[in-house]
């Protein structure tokens, strides 16, 4: 498998994990006991979790469509292109 493929997949997973952590922090850190949670404080984490889901789906589908073929082709000694 190409190093750029591995780097792309690892970057997507780390970015997704970081986005999930930031969205959780944004939700927990901005809770106001008197007035409740303002709408933009609960909407932002939901949007970021959507981004996390999209990134993980793209990384997973890339692995299923391209990564497995490259890996199996290299084991057999055949070029994947």
Describe the structure.
By secondary structure, the chain is an all-alpha fold. It has one domain. It is built from 2 helices and no strands. The protein has helices at 3-29, 39-76. Helix 1 packs antiparallel against helix 2. It is rod-shaped and about 65 Å long. The mean pLDDT is 76.
Derived structural class? mainly alpha
Question: What is the number of beta strands?
Answer: 0
Rounded average pLDDT: 76
Spatial extent as radius of gyration = 19 Å
The helix content, as a percent range, equals over 70%
Give a brief rundown of this model.
With about 80 residues, this protein is mainly α. The chain has helices at about 5-30, 40-75.
What descriptive keywords fit this protein?
about 80 residues; mainly alpha; about 80% helix
Tell me the layout of helices and strands.
Layout: H1 3-29, H2 39-76
Helix pairs in contact: 1-2
